[in-house]
Design goal:
By secondary structure, the chain is mainly beta. It has a single domain, classed as Quinoprotein alcohol dehydrogenase-like superfamily (Methanol Dehydrogenase, Chain A, 8 Propeller), CATH 2.140.10. Helix content is about 5%, strand content about 35%. The chain is built from three helices and 36 strands. The strands form eight sheets. Strands 1-8-7-6-5-2 form a six-stranded antiparallel sheet, with no helix packed on it. The radius of gyration is 21 Å and the shape is globular. The relative contact order is 0.14.
């Protein structure tokens, strides 16, 4: 069922992460650069003037076989080859040389599942959708694989970073493991869009359903021990539905995880849907009021499929959490006490269309800014567009700082210089005009527009590493030089 397609081993990558925390290596080992999913990357000396002078043509273009929804990851060690880890819906994971695009290794994790074998959905085939995570020289990824008898399986793999080999004891079949605990997880009905996370020796995978919201599924968070993958624990929403759809998945402040859930089905009492839920670093939910938030009209949001969980929560400062919903609203909560039903401390209508992609944030002038793909409501005079920047000021007060044209459905990121100054927002016109753009973070002024790329899928987000900004499209990986 599963096999590896070797090209060339590159064991020099195996120690990449050993020095990451000590500053000897530059790495993007998870979605949006960190466990908080801030989307921020530091690029020394990268000012607005230098961005404006960038050439519009990519410095690197290397072929891929997509679709590609997962974001690339970037790993580098001093004196060693830098590599991009790319995972596709064809269930292929490959390491590419970040300088020239040469294949270092590639591994195929089994046959992806055609849409004809699923109850609904809009990805065909379905293989790896959520962005992998790298920890301790190991790549963890979730894949939907066509098993024996044509039955879809949800599997979690561990691959050696240096050679792509599947590690002993892996993959883990989530459905079978939960069945052994008398828990129902119907693999064909569960979709896996969210980026993976790691904490305290466990890898965490969040699940929702498929586009179309069909059949019986739950919002799940599954935690697997890295050293002993036979040990698996799971949290799920009490009511059917309540999927964790956000590409950014779980957000962590180092003490807890925060996840956002979507609509539940036929729930007359709140049962985990339309919420921000705090989980412990063991992936478990206390059930206490201070550990969840849902809007007071959660039932209406349920009935109208206006998920709060289409985008991940965002940590604001040291004490707040922001949620963005398909209702176009922004909800701000106290991190120490999420407040239960209707517990927000501030709310504002910020988008005229549903908010679905992952946000990014930065600080400027003492205020917190959050940028996301949407359609700005109450944009400053003369501005409009599908890229929106919110300002969260003391009070607290949420307002739209600026609006600009992203021309697509990509998830933005932010670069700053070493001191946190010179914020630049980067976004892709995914499934739109397919161009990478850069904007001044404080006022939304357009700084850079690339040449068009091949089809970039919605939710795709740029990755910064080694003096380039990379974008994965369905048929190519692009690198634009600073």
């Amino acid at each position: 069922m599963m096999g590896r397609v070797p090209w060339r081993l590159c064991a020099v990558l195996a120690l990449v992460l050993a020095g990451a925390g000590a500053g000897r290596a530059q790495a993007v080992v998870q979605y949006h650069a960190d466990a908080a999913r801030s989307g921020r990357s530091v690029v020394p000396g990268l000012t607005a003037a230098k961005v404006s002078a960038m050439p519009p043509a990519p410095a690197l273009s290397v072929g891929l076989v997509g679709p590609v929804y997962a974001a690339p990851l970037y790993v580098q060690a001093s004196g060693r080859r830098a590599a991009l880890i790319v995972a596709t819906e064809q269930n292929k994971v490959e390491a590419l040389d970040a300088a020239n695009g040469e294949t270092i290794w590639q591994t195929v994790l089994g046959t992806p599942v055609p849409s004809s074998s699923l109850p609904c959905g809009d990805i065909d085939p379905m293989g790896i959708t959520g962005t992998p995570v790298i920890d301790g020289g190991v790549i963890y990824t979730a894949a939907m694989v066509l098993g024996h008898g044509g039955l879809p399986q949800q599997l979690v793999f561990a691959l050696g970073l240096g050679d792509g080999h599947i590690r002993p004891g892996w993959p883990v079949s989530v459905g079978l493991a939960l069945a052994g605990q008398n828990k129902l997880f119907v693999a064909a009905n569960q979709g896996q869009r969210s980026a993976l996370s790691v904490a305290r020796g466990r890898v965490f995978v969040a699940y929702a359903g498929h586009f179309g919201d069909c059949r019986y599924y739950h919002g799940w968070v599954v935690g697997i021990e890295e050293a002993n993958p036979a040990q698996l624990s799971g949290f799920s929403t009490a009511a059917p539905g309540g999927g964790i759809w956000a590409p950014g998945g779980m957000v962590s402040d180092g003490q807890s995880f925060f996840v956002a859930t979507g609509n539940t089905m036929n729930a007359d009492r709140w049962a985990g849907g339309e919420a921000v839920i705090r989980l412990g670093l063991d992936g478990q939910f206390s059930g206490r009021r201070q550990d969840y938030f849902a809007p007071s009209n959660w039932k209406q949001l349920d009935d109208e499929d206006l998920d709060l969980g289409a985008t991940n929560p965002m940590l604001i400062g040291s004490s707040s959490v922001l949620a963005l919903g398909k209702d176009g609203n922004a909800y701000l909560m106290k991190r120490a006490n999420l407040g239960g039903i209707g517990g927000e401390v501030a709310e504002a209508h910020v988008s005229n269309v549903p908010i679905r992609t992952s946000p990014a944030n930065f600080t400027s002038g003492g205020d917190e800014f959050v940028v996301f793909e949407g359609e700005g409501a109450d944009c400053p005079a003369g501005e409009q567009g599908d890229l929106v920047a919110l300002k969260i000021a003391p009070g607290p007060k949420i307002s739209v700082a600026w609006c600009a044209e992203e021309h697509g459905l990509g998830a933005p990121i932010v670069t700053t210089t070493e001191d946190g100054a010179n914020p630049v927002v980067w976004a892709v016109g995914a499934e739109g005009d397919e161009r990478l753009r850069a904007f001044n973070g404080t006022d939304g002024r357009l700084l850079f527009t690339s040449q068009p790329m091949h089809l970039v899928r919605r939710f795709q987000t740029p990755v910064v590493g080694g003096g380039r900004i990379y974008v994965a499209a369905d048929s190519a990986l692009y690198g634009f030089g600073f």
